[in-house]
Specification:
Layout: E1 3-7, E2 43-48, H1 55-64, E3 72-78, H2 80-84, E4 88-91, H3 99-104, E5 106-110, H4 114-127, E6 129-133, H5 135-147, H6 158-167
Antiparallel strand pairs: 1-2, 1-3, 2-5, 3-6, 4-5
Amino acid sequence: MPFYLRVINKNRWYRSSPPSWLPENEIPAQCLADVVPKPEESLSLWRIDDDRSNLNRVTAAIAAARRNLDKLDYALFPIAIIDLLGLSVAQSPGKTPDNVANTTWHWEIIELTASKAALLAKEIYSSAEITRKLPMDVRTLIQEGIRLTHLTKAKLHADLLAELNSTHPGAL
């Protein structure tokens, strides 16, 4: 079964050690920050193949769209959750330096209400795989994406390129 990937901040999703004040079947309110779109936008998702064969390419694309080299946190959850919650999704072009990832795997949740966003956060909290890629792993993913020509180097931010070259000059 395929998955959706949503970029999050892992520090908000402390499932292994929830605060003592958190009632059973509740989630920390901070989780909502990761499932509420910015004004005039939809909630960005990335479709990941069931064998996860495109996971590294998608995470490299996301990381390469940033200004700086940093950790990358994401939640990976079955696409069935979207149907279960009655959410509407539409394929849309992503905004990364990987044109294939942008046109093939980028989706958006459209017409998201507050109550459905809360339900989505609760489903992610209870069943998603929450992962953090450390900066050194992100560096490797981006460098591999450039080497394989998945990433258009000219579309990377100058600050990110400088960081990628600073520790490993000539690596790009």
